[in-house]
Design a protein that fits this description.
It contains 1 helix and 8 strands. The chain has 179 residues and is α+β, with helices and mostly antiparallel strands.
Length: 179
Amino acid sequence: MILQLFKGKRFLFFIILCLSTHSYVFAQTEMSRENSRFLDNVRFGGSLGLSFSDNAFSAFLAPKAVYDFNNLASAGIGIAGTYTNADNYSAHSISGSLIGLLRPIQNIQLSAEFEENYVSRSWELEGANRKDSYWYPALFLGAGYTTGPVTVGIRYDVLYDDEKSIYGSALMPFISVYF
């Protein structure tokens, strides 16, 4: 009788172990499916930009990741590095951004991107070298033509400040690629 009870407890332990292992494996499989569904909707890529104005040159490189909610709307984050050079003036910035994309018509993309830039600049004024570092916001509204993974367009900084902005002008053409 004791031997049967012991065997019964072992059997019961074995059943509990199997059920808990099955539940663990099932939970891990569900988590993997959810993660893969999330990642299936994430596109990685970024933008390149150039701007020319009155002997000034600006360029930026911005890797980004966006999540596609559906065929019409996406949102994401990005980082960016910018360099500007003009007569007796140079600046660079590092920034983080929040991105919103809207595709109301096939091949047309509207965008809004808020950047918070850390700017470091130096310039020569009346023979003296000056340096300055500060934080500066930029809010770009843009439109572009999309074909496959590539979007070509133009964006405009509605917060553009001629004295603080690192960009050569408020208007900037761009090329974005997302995979």
